[in-house]
Protein: Olfactory receptor
Organism: Sarcophilus harrisii
Amino acid sequence: MSSSSTLHLNQSGTTEFVFRVFTTSPKIQALLFCFFLLLYIMTLCGNTTILWAVYAHTSLHIPMYFFLSNLSLVEICYTTIVVPLMLSNILGAQRPIPLAGCATQMLLFYTCAGTECFLLAVMAYDRYVAICQPLHYTLIMTQKRCIQLMVASLALPFYLELHLTILLFTLPFCGHRLEINHFFCDAPPVLRLACGDIRVQQAVIFVMGFFILTVPLVLISISYIFIANTILRIHSAEGRRRAFSTCSSHLSVVLLQYGCGILVYMRPKSSTSEDEDWQLALVYTFVIPLLNPLIYTLRNKDVKDALKNSMSCTAASELP
């Protein structure tokens, strides 16, 4: 057997990773654990509220809220893929994750993140049809079409990220226990631990990041160019305001999501700092999934009305 084959077999059998320690101070560890746990619980509560509101109220059984509920479900999934393991490593000793576990976490996380990008593009298309072609909306955005768009938004990132994960984890890693300068198995810090030639993998990460971030962003931009053109041709100020209000929440989420994604994965490597990537990852792992349901509940009249009706019904049922 060749030496390279022996190295690969040894790697797949014994290599494991540990994550960067936030701090060695027990007091700060406890504070960080409580802080991140609180953010995680708030994220779960916010996104679960969206899911419940859409499921429980027939007024929200339309394509726009079908996609919004799936967006919330994706955010619950991708924070859950990362946060529990991260919390377990904040307190106590570094807990190792095997090679296969790291690859699985990376695949699932990137699949969810990619699904979110494509789902945002689908939501922009839904707004385009609703505003620019309102008479044909029910004919175009059928239940079957909505399910097809949702499945495609999930299947395409999974297919792409599966190949990326296989490409990364067939590299040789030098050592039995390696520390990832991150709090989860993200591709750039894992790639830095490989001891082979990583130029091909770096190029693939850039191209795939470009595709998953840029293609949906282009589709979103095209949709909003047509939407803006249609809104500007509406004569009444109230009509323009109502049309724009249905898009403002989505635009806010797009700016948050793509701002962080482009900063992390599309910057030239010469300007990339490991600490900056680590800090930005905290933003898109905790802050964005927490803010998204707040944006949609605070800036969306239909969701606010549904939640108010639910609270009114609950309060009325508790009265003697």
Summary: The chain has eleven helices and three strands. Residues 99-132 form the longest helix (34 residues). The longest strand covers residues 16-19.
